[in-house]
Design goal:
191 residues, alpha+beta, Nucleotide Exchange Factor Grpe, Chain A, domain 2, three-stranded antiparallel sheet, adenyl-nucleotide exchange factor activity, coiled coil, unfolded protein binding, stress response, Protein GrpE
Amino acid sequence: MSAKEQQIENEEMIQEEVELEQPVEEVVGEDPLEEAIARVQELEAQLEQTMKKEQDLLLRTRAEIDNIRRRTEQDVEKAHKFALEKFSKDILNTIDNLERALATPANLEDESVKALFDGVELTLKELISTVARFGVEPVGIVGEVFNPELHQAISMQPMEGFEANQITVVLQKGYLLNGRVIRPAMVMVAA
């Protein structure tokens, strides 16, 4: 080694010794343990928030499932209850025709006409009792108070023996299916 290299090496060693002798400056800031504790608390708070959100989501999901189940049950109940609505509307025409047949004047002294008349009457009674078993009931009776939800007023005219808004004439019976109007009664109302 040359003298110059020796001198550079000595200077470097002296500088290292000086650096080692200088006191190490303390790290300004928090203790690493305190930082770790703060971080743990922060993570616990986040975990608690996440758990609350999950619990809320779970409750909302359960409520939505219950609502869907309830709606489905109501829809099925309505489907069962009102499945016969279209059929009932169609059968009402037959009932009307049988009632018209019984309302026409006939010579009941003739045995064949009387037997036919009795047969139509029995058929009408049986048909009415059959539809009644399935929840179809007639509305619109003379003397009843007019109800716009059940009756359709064709005309209003003063009539003796009837109060205002009382049904005086039933032109066509109305019918309900399990409480729902499937055909309103066409009536005349006293004024």
